[in-house]
Amino acid sequence: MKRLLCLLAVWGLILGLAGCKNTKPVQKTVFAMDTVMDLQIWGADAEAAAERIASLLTDLDRTWSAAKEESLIGQLNRGKDIALTEEQSQLLTRVQQLSEHTSGAFDPQMLSVSRAWGFYEKEYRIPTEEEISLALSDPKWDLGAALKGYAGDRAVALLENSNVDCAILNLGGNIQTYGQKADKTPWQIGIQNPGGSDYVGILSVVGTCAVVTSGDYQRYFEKDGIRYHHIMDPETGCPADSGLASVTVICRNGLTADALSTALFVMGLEKGTELWRQSNDFEAVFITTEGEIYATAGAALSGCEYEVIDR
Amino acid sequence: MKTKFWIILTACIVAVCLGLTLWLYRSGEAAKTVTVISEGEVLYTLPLSVDQTIAVTSKRGTNTVTVKDGKVAVTQADCPDGHCMARGFCDRGAQIVCLPNRLVLQFSSDPAIDGISQ
Q1: Contact between A173 and B117 using a beta-carbon 8 Å cutoff
Q2: Cα–Cα distance measured from residue A156 to residue A169, given in angstroms and rounded to the nearest whole number
Q3: CB atoms < 10 A from the CB of A211, how many?
Q4: Looking at chain B, which residue has its C-alpha nearest residue A199?
Q5: Strands A174-179, A244-251: parallel, antiparallel or unpaired by DSSP?
Q6: For the segment A59-82, what is each residue's pLDDT rounded down to a tens digit?
Q7: Distance from B114 to chain A by nearest Cα, in Å?
Q8: Interface contact A57, partner B, CB < 8 A
Q9: What is the pLDDT of residues B38-57, one digit of tens each?
Q10: Is pTM, for the whole model, over 0.80?
Q11: Which residues pair with A81 in a beta bridge?
Q12: Helix, strand or coil for residue A163?
């Protein structure tokens, strides 16, 4: 009888422990970088960590937003000679390296081109060829395609120095995971359906990782039945037309993931695959405008039919 | 007498454990809801099973949120772009956002995923 009691007590304990994985995270919604950001953090100091990440996001926005005249980047663009902190010059060096690494497909100096199409003032228009070539010859900083990824890296650094168990941050569509879930299962990240409101497949990622998607559905306007989206091809100065509807990049580093998702979107499936074959620090999922899905060999994709790209 | 005591105690523990199991199981299969967040503050959590229309007013503007036939949409908004309305009626997926008015409609968590990359 006593043995049975012990057994029941153990059962109760296991159930109680299993309940821990259902403990609610601290949740916080932050408006920054012209988008909405959701923080979910588990652990003893989750509340404090969420506050610190929220102010980090606001600070980064204030410093690096190209739309704000008084921001650091606004001043750089006006040719002001400003002393940069080590962190700031490191970021500018990194984005330039990423631009070189992607043969210019990711270009952090496309502000004039985006402006010509009205993506900054949100007064959309189709510029003339003259206006486009003028904008292309006027390189101005715009870290819009890299800043959220960088913010993810900075948030991870902050979480590493906090007493928290794990976290998942949605930074305007960029997913940044931190640590391992309480039940030790991988994070399950849906990939947005470019042509709908649901998700098309699920990526399993382990530990701290960034999952970043660039797509033609995020910011766009339509004129005479044609969609003009916000990802500019640095070669043409027009919305990239590479046959892709979205590219998702899975990478340990958020900044790299963000810049690469833009670069691969501009490059298209073939050139993007080539870049992947030359690299070993990321995986990718390509969705074509026809809805076909291609995933690189290391991407743990499930829940949809797709073709695997081998090394 | 002593045996009877043990039987009752065991029965009680079994009942508690069963209850706990059921409760844990149920909480994992909660009904579908949508959480209305205005300027970062959670205002309501609405069940998608109850049709209703509410107006959400922030410092920046007003959006009308309609729950109908198990789905939710922003059906009216005074924001300049109307992106929030363009999404239409949904019952899952990424959150519906009105950036100008700082309104977020978040669906109850999908047990299959932890987040959506978009």
Answers
A1: yes
A2: 10
A3: 29
A4: B93
A5: unpaired
A6: 999 999 887 788 999 999 999 989
A7: 5
A8: no
A9: 998 999 999 999 999 999 99
A10: yes
A11: none
A12: coil
